[in-house]
Amino acid sequence: MNSFLKQFEGHDISFILKRFAELFPFENLDVLNGYEQKITSEFLKEKLIDHQRGGLCYELNALLFLTLKKLGFDVQLATGTVKNEGVWAIDDTHATVLLQRDGHLCLVESGFGNRLPFSPLLLDGESASSPAGTFRFRTVTTEKGTLAMEQLVNDEWIVRYGFSPEPMEWSNLTKMKETIHYHEQSTFTQAPVIAGITDGGTFSIARDRLRLKWPDGSEKIVTFENDYDFLNEVTRYCSPSIVKETKLYLNAAFRDGQKKLK
């Protein structure tokens, strides 16, 4: 962990957030492959740092929290609820990080798919942009709390997740993981999701397609003819450890009688 921290010493939080986005893609292979380890600092170090994996919010933002805390920042974990296409997801299944800076509350994010601002978002302050888009942190009362992370989409601000400022206990991360693994409404149990940020835009890989997006709103979708195409793109964008876990998932799918996508 100490060698991992050295790369961030002397840098501001924006550098750390950008570096996290480069190092750790958003991916749900542990869910699909049935890994059930508790969320501990040792687990995060082994999975994300030593094995160069990605993860979901309760892993990526947990590691971000530990990193910032060890670097001397005043941070806390918080739990929120995601909103997709106007519909709220399972309650309290998004872990995020709040930062107190110069007497002000900020949101820092490393575990929200590829929708990642590269700067702390000041509560009710200016928006911030990255290759993923433009984001802001607002006092907004929703069914899920009094705070919200919003994204500018087609000239309209939409809520991406809502939450309250109360600190979340570390033990809730493992409970959140269990919910994602077993809840009947979990969106992460059916198929692989791998997403990240490139130098010029974002990528997301599903089993049937690759989607590339750029800040100007343009995008490119490449449809896969079979799982070899899928695996080739995972290999192109991800670490060998993620490729290995993808192969394990595909082998299990074949054993279960699933057909390759045509």
UniProtKB/TrEMBL annotation:
<dbReference type="GO" id="GO:0016407">
    <property type="term" value="F:acetyltransferase activity"/>
</dbReference>
<dbReference type="InterPro" id="IPR053710">
    <property type="entry name" value="Arylamine_NAT_domain_sf"/>
</dbReference>
<comment type="similarity">
    <text>Belongs to the arylamine N-acetyltransferase family.</text>
</comment>
<protein>
    <recommendedName>
        <fullName>Arylamine N-acetyltransferase</fullName>
    </recommendedName>
</protein>
<dbReference type="InterPro" id="IPR038765">
    <property type="entry name" value="Papain-like_cys_pep_sf"/>
</dbReference>
<dbReference type="Pfam" id="PF00797">
    <property type="entry name" value="Acetyltransf_2"/>
</dbReference>
<dbReference type="InterPro" id="IPR001447">
    <property type="entry name" value="Arylamine_N-AcTrfase"/>
</dbReference>
